[in-house]
Write a structure and sequence with these properties.
Length: about 100
């Protein structure tokens, strides 16, 4: 997995950050996560919709290196700092490398 500029890591939902890529049908977090006041659930907006997690739910993510925010995506050409198109091949490559490709 050395060809990726960043880190594959297991975290809890409360640790999800803007620009992380949630693996298992890879999708970028496109806004800072929110916590529901009444339920404590973590609400995450991604490039394909909204995911909701219990705060301590385990989540496997790819956390891009900060340098990635300064370079356009080599696969889809998205501008630096912007999330890739939901169908970008970079997402499939991340899932393949992590062994989390959806069936």
């Amino acid at each position: 997995m050395d060809e990726f500029n960043g880190e594959f890591t297991h975290i809890t939902a409360r640790e999800i950050r803007h620009r992380d890529v949630i693996l298992g049908g890879a999708r970028a977090v496109t806004a800072p996560p929110e916590t529901a006041i009444t339920t404590g659930t973590v609400i995450v907006t991604t490039g394909v919709g909204t995911d909701t997690y219990a705060p301590d739910a385990p989540v496997y993510v790819f956390r891009p290196a900060s340098a990635c925010a300064n370079e356009p995506c080599p696969e889809c050409g998205t501008e630096p700092g912007e999330p890739c198109d939901w169908a970008c091949l970079s997402y499939a490559a991340l899932d393949d490398a992590a062994g989390t490709s959806p069936a």
